[in-house]
Amino acid sequence: MININWDTFCSELSEIETIQEPNQRQKLSQDYYHFSPILQPLLKDKIGDIVVRPTTEAEVLQVAKVCVKYKVPLTVRGAGTGNYGQCIPLEGGVILDLTKLNQINWIKPGLACVEPGVKLATFDKQAREIGWELRMIPSTYRTATIGGFIEGGSGGIGSITYGQLRDRGNLQAARVVTMEDEPRIIELRGDQVQKINHAYGTNGIITALEIPLAPVYPWAEMIVTFDDFMTSARFGQALALSDGIIKKLVCVCAAPIPAYFAAFKNIIPSGKNAALLMISEANLEPFQELVKEYGGTICYQKSSEETGKGSTLIEYTWNHTTLHARSVDPSITYLQTLLPADRKLELLEHLYDHFGDEVMQHLEFVRLQGEMYPIALQLVRFTTEERLNEIMNYHEEKGAIIFNPHTYILEDGGMKTINLEQLQFKQEVDPYGLLNPGKMKAWLEREKHLEN
Ligand code: FAD
Fold first, then answer.
1. Whose CA is nearest to atom 28 of ligand 1?
2. Which domain covers residue 352, as residue numbers?
3. Ligand 1 atom 17: the closest Cα is on which residue?
């Protein structure tokens, strides 16, 4: 807890909404870190001192100014659906809830400008009216915000065509409020956006984003089942590589994962491996040929007119797969692994045989720099931290890349190395280290170095 008089602090925020009530503060200090048994004990008691909810960029500037004046930490929050405690305030202070900064400024063919608190689903509904949609969305698209996705997410449904958020071209520009003595607004364009892209809100508060869009196709949802897991994985890879079949999602779940999907209990036969897919309805004929070639059975099909109404397959893929499994067995946790773009899927087959039921295979096919990769979000039957580390080490020894979901440190998750560009930007715009403290390793090491 920070030792200042919060009533005095609030009085300097004039009309901006603030929340000091403990239950609400606690709720707004959390995310989905509890998917990780390692993060649970580390983060469960962290709580912000006050929630501040601005509605305009000018109000964000004002909050930044008051925080700098009192040297109060500030942690930005979107919808709080991150998986690694990205928006959990390690040192208390202000939770800056940006869900009310939610205007869609403009949408034109191929490009849009939005405030960060716009929900992904709300945006897509409006953009589809002119035939466009977001290039990629996380499976939390109904609740997650665009700002939170850019700062805390990586990719998702649509990444099979457009790659990941960090790829050049997937974010066009950002407006950022700084935490200097006199906070200002900086506009980052082109490659400069990488200064703040996926930085967990440690080096700027995004107040507007320009996001490139994708054309909308008539998306049909399908589930195809297979008796054998490797055949389902090979089918998924062949579909991912079929350039003539337009698709948005190719997810493959090994048995027994589909048994965790209550809504499909009577649809996916027990013991089957399942591919969960979104395909352009105009391409269903060639798609059916591919299914036949691999001996699959289509057990579920939702027409493009029905897609988007009621439940959707999207909410059974990416980390929603983990969510459903954990709702049946809360001891289950997960991994995030980049497997090689190997046409023979040899490492996948080895890992499947080696770990058996302890590590249940869940694949999402993603295009990265022109190659098609299986990203695995395997479900793990958790026993001990030591065993979990052993499993992750084994993957890395065999040539897979682990994006560790059991750490809240920015660099230890995906990139593994210090991002100098992001560190330098933080030095410039957040000289007191007030933004989401404790998350950027490069900054922590710099502080240690300065102390010695
Ligand atoms: P938050 O969790 O609120 O914030 C995320 C990070 O962004 C925090 O560090 C926060 O400080 C920072 N931040 C938020 N807004 C701003 C801003 N305006 N300026 C600066 N920093 C800001 N992720 C994926 O990439 N793909 C998936 O498919 C996916 N599936 C998921 C499924 C489940 C069931 C769950 C629980 C999570 C999943 N996630 C996935 C993670 C998460 O849902 C997404 O990354 C989501 O987009 C985060 O948005 P949010 O609004 O909830 O952000």
1. 138
2. 219-402
3. 206
